[in-house]
Automatic annotation (TrEMBL):
Region feature (Disordered): 48-67
Organism: Guyanagaster necrorhizus
Regions of compositional bias (Basic and acidic residues) in chain numbering: 55-67
Name recorded for this polypeptide: DUF4219 domain-containing protein
């Protein structure tokens, strides 16, 4: 993560379960800055059909998306209180962690 991202993370309040809306806004700003926000939202949108055969360009794009989703998981994980780990500790990417925290509410 860049020093700018680290600085932004320091300004995000830890998600405690009681401050979801303020945490959600702040963390979405960080995810937008890192380029992970749109990818996370796309992953949450299950209505998009998956392509059967992928070109090399699409495969590279998938790897880039997977990297961004991993970065999103790290970013989310670093901004939740330890009391909330139980909801995201088994999530494999940021979209799954985001959904898990939304489902708690």
């Amino acid at each position: 993560m860049s020093s700018v991202t680290n600085s932004l993370l320091g300004s995000v309040p830890k998600f405690t379960g009681d401050n979801y809306h303020s945490w959600k806004f702040a963390i979405s700003m960080v995810l937008r800055r890192t380029g992970a926000w749109d990818i996370l939202l796309d992953k949450l949108d299950e209505s998009k059909p998956a392509s059967q055969k992928k070109t090399r360009s699409e495969e590279k794009d998938d790897k880039d998306k997977a990297s961004k989703l991993d970065q999103a998981l790290t970013t989310i994980g670093l901004t939740v209180d330890t009391s909330q780990y139980q909801y995201i500790e088994n999530c494999s990417d940021g979209a799954k962690a985001w959904k898990a925290l939304m489902d708690v509410l």
